[in-house]
Amino acid sequence: MNKVLIASREVEEMAKFKKHLEPGFEVFSIALPDYPEQGLRMFDVALIDHGFTESSGIDYVGKVSKAAHIPVLMLTPPDDPKCAIEAIRAGAFNYIVKFGHYEEVLPVAIDEAISRFNERQEMKTTIDSLNKRIAELEELLGAIPKKTLEHVHKLASDNVSGKNTDIVKEIVSRFKQGEINLPSIPQINVKFQELIDRGADYRQISELLKQDVAIASKLIMVSNSPLYRGVDINRTLEQAISRLGIAVTQQYVNVISNRALYTVSQKKYVPLIERLWQHSLSCAFACQTVASSLETKPQFDNDPFILGLLHDIGKLILLQVIGELENKGKFVAEIPIGEVLKITEAYHGQFGSALLKRWKFASGCTQAALYHDNLNEADPISKELLVVHFANLLVKSLGFAFTNGNSPDIQSAQSAQLLKIEPPVAEAVKQETLRYMDEVGKVLF
Fold first, then answer.
1. What is the mean pLDDT of residues 320-338?
2. Which of 72, 85, 31, 70 is nearest to 53 (CA)?
3. What is the pLDDT of residue 152?
4. Phi, psi at 240, each rounded to 5°
5. Most buried residue among 146, 273, 407, 425 by CB atoms closer than 10 A?
6. What does the angle CA 379 – CA 381 – CA 383 come to, to the nearest 5 degrees?
7. DSSP secondary structure letter of residue 246
């Protein structure tokens, strides 16, 4: 039941108010303007009589409006229209002229005031949320270097039809209208990193991961896979973490939690999403293996495994957005798969890089997402980018590709030359990646 505050010095009027209001409201009355400000917040609406204070109650209207975010109704005399105007200026939501049997309409007037006030608040909340999403999109687009935008626009004109350019414009438009949400980094990843930064031990990490049954069970399965299996079978999370080690455990927490992001509303895109996941997981392991095989071990700002896992995150975003907009009927017709693939190839770098920047990943990770298909566009070319570029080509040559195409010649790749990867090393990475996907990859699907 809504609570109504009545501020009036008129005892007889107060009795009339209560008679008409108490069947539907909790009514509280005050005769002096000394009610505690913090107490005003308990009410849903306030009625203030023009005779409540020496200044026609106008000063108390302002006080209530500032202290409590509630609608204030002013009871004004029939012969003083100026009072109503001053009340509205002071913050009153509306006014009621004390004419005839006005007290009989108070219940309806109060209900309407509360309803309209709440509608305005909901609208304000919606607008604030929309503005926030627009700001996020502007940040997303603003994070893309001008040089990259020029390159992407060239790609679009070379490889993407005018119709598909319109589709991308529609996607951006829907972002601005708040119809599309950008994904957030899984919170379990954030909490895990916070524990690592605080120097947490196995027990503390185990307590965190036990909160997610899916992650805990998958970690136990991974620790018992042929790649990590020991003499005994692990049956508890503590045993799994002990066998894998904290660093590898963190990798798999990232893998398992990110796997949950690989969903799409349109069934026709499910095969693409699954191929994208296979490509990303295989690239993650290949990146780690390539980095460890280099004669001069580089100091990366990001774990090579994570670099590979997230390098194509932009394709995931675009597939999800296009599928969502198709479901909502935002396009004239469904977009052919071939056209969707052209769009994702042309624009995934900029979307993925900006999302990783929003997730606060270091520049090495955002650069890898942006330039892993176009080394020559990067300046400078980091070791992290080279590793991702090479691993990306290598897993495609193994059949873990997002789209069908010719198998790339990895030895002639610029990244292979700059990293000085010899054929025997490349072959070893291939075999280890195949083994990983056979023994561990199937546990994570």
1. 81
2. 31
3. 45
4. -65, -45
5. 273
6. 155
7. H
438 assigned to some structural domain = yes
Which among 363, 325, 296, 74 is positioned nearest to 180, based on CA atoms? 325
393, 375 in Cβ contact below 8 A? no
Distance CA 245, CA 48 (A): 68
> What is residue 260's DSSP assignment?
T
Environment class of residue 299 by beta-carbon count within 10 Å: exposed (0-12), middle (13-18) or buried (19+)?
A: exposed
Q: Rounded distance, CA 266 to CA 284, Å?
A: 26
Q: How many domains does the chain have?
A: 2
Domain that holds residue 367: 150-183+261-444
d(CA 394, CA 308): 12
Write the pLDDT tens digit of every residue in 39-86: 898 999 999 999 898 888 899 999 998 888 899 999 999 888 888 889
Co-location of 373 and 266 in the same domain: yes
Radius of gyration for the chain, computed over Cα atoms and rounded to the nearest angstrom? 32
The answer to whether residues 72 and 175 belong to one domain is no
Q: Are residues 166 and 72 both part of a single domain?
A: no
Average pLDDT score over residue span 24-47: 89
Q: How far is CA 426 from CA 238, 275, 437, in A?
A: 35, 23, 17
pLDDT mean over 254-280: 89
Measured CA to CA, the distance from residue 76 to residue 113 in angstroms comes to 16
Dihedral of the CA atoms 175, 178, 181, 187 (nearest 10)? 130
pLDDT (tens digit, 9 = 90+) per residue, 189-215? 888 988 888 888 888 899 889 888 888
* Residue 23: Cβ-neighbour burial (10 angstroms; 0-12, 13-18, 19+): exposed
Distance, C-alpha 192 to centroid of its chain = 19
Provide the 10 A C-beta neighbour count for residue 157: 12
Q: What gap in Å lies between CA 300 and CA 193, rounded to an integer?
A: 17
Residue 259 tokens read as 């796997």
Identify whether the C-beta of residue 178 lies closer than 8 Å to the C-beta of residue 129: yes
**What is the dihedral sign for C-alpha 205, 209, 210, 215?**
negative
pLDDT of 283: 95
Most confident segment among 2-11, 210-219, 322-331: 2-11
* 303 is a domain residue: yes
